[in-house]
Design a protein that fits this description.
single chain, 266 residues, mainly alpha
Length: 266
């Protein structure tokens, strides 16, 4: 059924209508994620709120030094982290999960990665809207600096797209990479400033680590914009874009060099 649904959507579009094809693939994928569930798309709202509630209760009890507006502090960190985690895990398996499209329809293979990342971006937008509603209810109003937020979303989009290219190609040859990436994500979850202040982590004593971590700077700048109403830290933002650009160059080169060999193993 899913194969027929995808083929009908993709084949209905002109071959040169790449943007519309990517959007329909992403939108369909997002809807299919909740297909057949009783609450349907409401899970896109319930899931992040449930996670936030659990983390807030646990870490509120553990935190010795309280952070003002701690619920929003966690939420602003989780926005980017959940997007990064989900997107890279989905992107890593996109070549196998969309194998039927690759075998039956002629189109740019990169479209699959763009649409996969875009699917998670729809979820990120949902979560951001929820954040803003909660923020307004708590009396914290966004200011003009929220206009910088699309820059950060673009930044993490490029980073995720690039990492997905690398992971998905490796995954064809060595499926163990999914387990390795899971462990890396667990480590990154705890060393990023999601639940703790920067001063509570090594970033304050060794600020260079903030620049070496590809996602930490984006989390910090997202929080600056949404919670504190401040503009992003420009050196950090520029470095993160440079970081994502390097990953993108590596990812595209890696994918183009190894894709044909990987396709033989489908």
């Amino acid at each position: 059924m899913l194969v027929r649904l995808y083929k009908r959507f993709v084949e209905a579009l002109p071959e040169n209508n790449q943007i519309e094809r990517i959007w329909i693939l992403a939108k369909t994928d997002f809807k299919l994620r909740y297909y057949g569930t009783f609450l349907g798309l409401f899970w896109a709202l319930i899931n992040p709120l449930f996670r936030l509630s659990v983390y807030y209760i646990v870490f509120s009890l553990l935190m010795a030094k309280k952070i003002p507006n701690y619920g929003l502090y966690i939420f602003s960190g989780l926005l980017i982290w959940l997007f990064f985690q989900e997107s890279t895990k989905r992107g890593m398996k996109v070549l196998k999960s969309k194998r039927y499209l690759l075998e039956n329809i002629e189109f740019n293979k990169l479209d699959l990665f763009i649409s996969s990342t875009l699917t998670s971006t729809i979820g990120l937008i949902f979560n951001t809207i929820i954040y803003l509603i909660v923020s307004l209810l708590l009396g914290i109003f966004p200011n003009v600096n929220i206009l910088y937020l699309p820059l950060l979303i673009l930044n993490v989009f490029i980073l995720v797209f690039a990492i997905s290219l690398i992971l998905s190609t490796i995954h064809i040859f060595m499926q163990d990479v999914s387990q390795v990436w899971e462990m890396i994500l667990v480590a990154m979850f705890w060393i990023n400033p999601i639940f703790y202040a920067k001063s509570a982590l090594v970033f304050d004593k060794l600020p260079v680590l903030l620049y070496l971590n590809p996602i930490a700077g984006i989390i910090v700048n997202t929080r600056n914009i949404l919670l504190y109403g401040q503009p992003p830290e420009w050196p950090l933002l520029l470095f993160d874009f440079a970081y994502a650009s390097v990953f993108l160059l590596i990812g595209l080169t890696f994918f183009r060099f190894f894709f044909n060999k990987a396709a033989e193993k489908f």
